[in-house]
Amino acid sequence: MRSAATRAQVIRTLGGLLDSGEAFSEISVQRILEEAGVSRATFYAHFHNKSDVLVRLTDELRESLLALARQWDPGTGEDGADRLARFFEEVITIHRAHQGLLTAVREAASYDAAVGDFYAANLEGFDETVLRILRSEQAAGAIPIDVDTPAASRIIVWGGAQAIARHIAVDDGSGDALFARELAKIWWHGVFRRPTG
Fold first, then answer.
1. CATH 1.10.357.10 domain locations along the chain
2. pLDDT tens column, 115-130
């Protein structure tokens, strides 16, 4: 029980530092130790390094976002783009609330192989979810047969992740609803309900 509490304290500490706007690359293990009130030996008994802490911190957020993605159903009504826009607004709200953490993951993924693998696996999980939906929609005749679902899924997920990250970096939040609407319409009319031919 004490070990779990120690791990949670270290993870919370890193989260707090990132939330306060500190760059992940500037946060040392020593700083985490001091803020968390744990010894170096205790830290390394639970974590390989600070990237390990980052991955564990991100894992819970990843699971909640993936669960949200799995709940979305394109349905058959004409309001699909509107429902998708509401879904994206929720995703953007979550991303804004965890902006420091998500920025840290993208930053660390560029130079730390373990974080890079985690980041790729994270997006691959979303890619698989979207691909399943696209294939199901295609089998039901809602998506034209000429849509290359694996390519469409990659564009949707990997491109969407970059677009959302960029939007949050340059927008103060006032444009979130419009951005979500445009992203939804691009997805909906570009793939989910693309005209045949």
1. 54-192
2. 999 899 889 988 998 9
CATH topology for 1-47 is Arc Repressor Mutant, subunit A (1.10.10)
Closest-CA residue to 71 (of 62, 84, 81):
84
Pull the structure tokens for residue 67: 């669960």
CATH of region 54-192? 1.10.357.10
Predicted TM-score (pTM) of the model is: 0.83
